Amino acid sequence: MRQFIRHPASLPIEYTFDNNIMHGKEFVKNIGEGGLCFGVSDYIEPGSVIFIRIPVCTPAFEAKGIVVWCCKNNGKYELGVKFADEATEFRVRMIEQVCHIKQYKKEILEKKGRKLSDEEAAVEWVEKYAKDFPE
User: Fold this and answer.
1) CA dist 16 to 23, 53, 79, 121, 127, Å?
2) Could you give the CA distance from residue 89 to residue 72 in angstroms, rounded to a whole number?
């Protein structure tokens, strides 16, 4: 059974390992308190230390993680990364909220035809849903 609830995401992610050589830019598939999942082009050995950067806010979310699993899927690999330290928890919660706000903005455009700025979407989402966001 999964230890942490995962939230769907479609956020850009950059990752490095092996002496900080840039290895790729992908999109996060899901993110949760304990870690995240994203696609990579090459197999990365479980146990490897990986540095991730998610540039959706300023400053960008940056953290060190440990590769927990790497599974082949449709010619690519899906990578599960556990955060290496507990200090990332607050920052992860911020990224989770960004995920929800971006999804809210997309849904409002699709369902109601209203194009919201990031700030407008954040204000509306906080008014409607922040009270229900788990602490």
Assistant:
1) 5, 9, 13, 32, 37
2) 28
pLDDT digits (tens, 9 = 90+) for 40-94: 888 999 999 999 888 877 788 888 899 999 999 888 899 999 987 777 766 777 7
| pLDDT beyond 50 at 5 | no
Which secondary structure element, helix H or strand E, spans residue 111, and what is its range?
helix 89-112
Contacts of 5 (CB under 8 A, 6+ apart): 32, 33, 134
Question: What is the residue range of 75's domain?
Answer: 6-86
Place of tokens 């990364």: 81
With tokens 């992610």, the residue in question is: 13
Is the pLDDT confidence value at 119 over 80?
yes
Q: What CATH code is carried by the domain that includes residue 81?
A: 2.40.10.220
Our CA angle for 34, 37, 41, nearest 5°, is 145
